[in-house]
Amino acid sequence: MKPGVVRNWLVAIVGVVILFYVGSTSFYTVQEQERAAILTFGKYTHETTSGLHFKWPYPIQEVRVVQAELTQKITIGYRQNGNTVTPVDDEAMMITGDENIVSADAVVTFKISNIRNYLHNISDPEQFLRNAASASIRSVIGSQKLDYAITDGKTAIQDMARERLIELQSRYETGIQIIDLKFQDIEPPGGEVEEAFRAVTNAREEKNTKVNNARKYENERIPNARGEAQAMLEQAEAEKKSRILNAEGDVAKFNAIYSEYAKNPSVTESRLILETLEKILPDAKIFITNSGSNTVNYLPLNELLGNRSSGATATQQQAQTPVQTPQAPQATESQQEAQGGNGQ
C-alpha cells in the first residue's frame, strides 16, 4: 500500500476511537433515585438530577452518581444478609455507667442531603457513619446505669443517641441527614448474666402489676368510702335538725303550759295530774269524791263520758245528787273503792 493510504487509514482509525471515547464519556444517565455531581478538573461545579445528560469528556469533566433520593440504613451490632443475621460483638458490647456490660443493637436510617460534602469531606461515608453511630450510642449508655438502660430508659437513651449522631454529622459536615436511630435490643450478655437480669425484669414487671392492682383497688374503695362517709354525715345532720326541731317544739309547749300555769297554778296543776294519770293508767276507772263530811259526793267520770249523748243537763243533775250512807263506815268503804280504782 502506498504511504499516503496507510496514513489516511491511521487517521480514520484514531478519529473513530476518539469519537467513540468522546461519545462514551460525554453522555451519562441518572436514575430517578439518584443525583450526579459534576467535577471539572477534579473540582465540584454542579449537580444534575434524573435523565440523560451531556458533559465534557474525561479528564475535563467527571461524574459521580450517588443515591441521594433514596432512604438508606445501616446496622450497628450485627449484619443482616437476607434472613441470615450475624452478630458483631465489637460493635454491640458496651460498658454502662455502673461498669456493667450490655449488648446494644441498633438501626440507623439516613439520606444524603449534600452531595458535595458527602463526596469530599469523608473518604468512606458508610464506615464513618457506622463509627459515629457506635460512638454516640457508647457515650450515652456509658453515662447510664444498667437497670435503667435495659428497662425504662431505652427510649430516652435512643433519643439522646440520635441527637448526638445528628450533632456529629453537622460538626463534620458529612452531607448525611440522619432520619432515625432505633435500638433493636438492649440486653445483658448471654448466659447466667442474661438469666439473672431476666429474673430481675420479671420481678419488676410483677411489682408493677401488683402496684397497678393496688391502685385500682384504692380507686374503687376510696370513692365508696367517701360516699358512705357523706351519707353518714347527711344522716347525722338530718338527725341533728330533727332533734333541734323536737327540742324547740318541747320548749314551745313547755312555755305555753307555763304561761297558763302562771295564770292559775292550781287548775293547771290538777289538769296536768289528770293528763298524767290518763297516760300511765289508761284502763283505770276514775272517781272524783269529796270526803270532807259524813256525806260522800262523787263524780263517776267513766259513766258520764259513756253517756255523753244524754245531754249536759242530765249530767249536771247527776253530779249534784247527794248519796246518803246509813253509817260513816260505808262512806269509808266508798272512799276505798274510789282509791281502788286509782282515781283519787
UniProtKB/TrEMBL annotation:
Note down the stretches annotated as region Disordered: 310-344
Cellular component terms (Gene Ontology) = membrane
Q: Where is the composition biased (Low complexity)?
A: 312-332
Q: Which Gene3D superfamilies match?
A: Band 7 domain
List residues traversing the bilayer.
Answer: 9-30
Q: Which domain of life is it from?
A: Bacteria
Subcellular location as annotated: Membrane
Q: Per its record, how is this protein called by name?
A: Protein HflK
Source species:
Paenibacillus oryzae
